[in-house]
Amino acid sequence: MSRLTQWVYGWLLLLPAMALLALFTHYPALANLWHSFQSTPKGGQPAVFVGLENYQQLVDDPIFWQALSNNLWYAIGTIPVSMALALLMAVWVNDRIPGRGILRLAFFTPTILPMIAVANIWLFFYTPEYGLLEQFTGAFGLPSHNWLGSKSTALGALMVVTVWKEAGFFMIFYLAALQSMSPHLGDAAAIEGASRWYFFRRVTWPLLMPTTLFVLVNAVINAFRLVDHIVVMTRGGPDNATELLLFYIYEIGFRFWDSAYAAALTMVLLGILGIVALAQFFFLERKVHYQ
Amino acid sequence: MSATLNVYEPRGVGRVLETAGAWVLGVLWILPLLYAFWTAFHSPEFSTRLSLTAPLTLANFVTAWHAAPFARYFLNTVLLVSMVLAAQLVLTTLAAYALARFEFPGRNVLFALVLVQLMVMPDVLIVENYRTMAALGLKDTIAGIGLPYMASAFGIFLLRQTFKGVPRELDEAARVEGCTPLQVLWKVYVPLARPTYLAYALVSVSYHWNNFLWPLIITNSVEARPVTVGLQVFSSTDQGIDWSIITAATLLTTAPLLVAFLLFQRQFVQSFMRAGIR
After folding, report:
1. Which residues of chain B from 50 to 89 reach within 8 Å of chain A, CB to CB?
2. Nearest 5°: phi and psi at B4?
3. Most exposed among A86, A194, A264, B5, judged by the fewest C-beta atoms under 10 Å?
4. What CATH number is given to the structural domain containing A228?
5. Which domains, from first to last, does chain B contain?
6. What is this model's ipTM?
7. Does A188 touch chain B (CB under 8 A)?
8. What gap in Å lies between CA A190 and CA B158, rounded to an integer?
9. Tens of pLDDT along B9-37?
10. Domain span at residue A271?
11. Mapping DSSP to helix (H, G, I), strand (E, B) and coil, where does residue B42 land?
């Protein structure tokens, strides 16, 4: 094939996908930046350039800061726990313990369910007086507590749901990595007299590093991307205690219809994702060998 | 799965402790689901009283099914999922083929532009994409829900990896036989990438069956809503707090995926694995 034919084929084959990506990823990201410097068109008034006004509003908005800090706590609270549980689950169901197949199923099933269905199930689970949790704590004589209705426990209660949903998903990746490891490594270490813990710390864990980093990136993205359960369970309440960034964007953009301010908020979210992308590029690419 | 004996598998007391730990965690993990099943299959007075003699009933499912147009919601979801998957398969195959096997100026830049979508997903560009859909007149349509997802960076990446693993000799042999590049793609690459397609299809179907926020924003009529949004509308407005019926509706909307998963567990798990290792 001549060089020119190669060029033409390459471009034409890529064109349909590239056109859609440009329309729904690249253009909106840039348009979002532009709209964040404009006012929201209202009534007959067209949008006008307002410079950094939307960002000034953002800096002065206590709910934005709360959403941001909630989201950071939410990430810090859910990511290490779900990853540690995922690793533990993977190690357990990789060993030949009784009921291994059923356990794998039990751990993985929440992953298949839609977050919205999960949220409905847990909403009932947490219901004051009727829910299973209340019946359980009630049986021990503990006072009734509205887990989702009080400021101090609402975000924590949501984190539990997230950990429950994600741990099984991350387990799969650890399980795949464990299964691809050569059993000869264990044999060799055993001959050298290494303890089980020593073997895990010095051989298994380093070999799992690419998986851990891959899971970490996905976990961070999910912590900022998935807010379906907020819509069902708390709507950001009580008193903004469970307001997360994307949910706040949704509220500003589609309940208050302030698209300009929502654009400024979106820029913050894009900035966070950009930082994740850069971190991945600089730290991960050196350790994980993509082809 | 592995038949080889692992020397570091626990023995004796360690094995008992490990098994016990795994089972405690397993029970904790399945408990909310079992509870949901209990509530859905019993009449409301038993939803908070666990009694082995409680009679099973399907009444909650019947009530839920008739209380909202779930049949229509299911149809919408099936249309959405199959439309998105069909488009994804075609678009990602062509793009991945170009990136894997053709030399052209700008290839690396274009590949980098594709990868941007791995981080900046349509899920976070809701404000601008809503504007675009309004301009295109696609608000409140199934196409409007699916369009932003049809060119999938994840799919392109996954298939490009697979295509790069195809031996060049096969490609060249087919060309010597007189195949055009598209025939080579269809006769050599696509058949060899079948496991990747299966993996990608399962991940894509479960993603779009479960997707919620964007469909919630872009639809507002029964004719376009997928089941996830239908379930939310149903449980937040119509039902007050009749948990038996809400739980029945929840299980109803997830049933097809759950049944498919239970039947094809191994394929699901392996597909998610395959999609993750890249």
Report:
1. none
2. -70, 150
3. B5
4. 1.10.3720.10
5. 13-63 (no CATH), 69-275 (1.10.3720.10)
6. 0.86
7. no
8. 37
9. 777 777 788 888 889 999 989 888 888 88
10. 58-115+148-290
11. strand
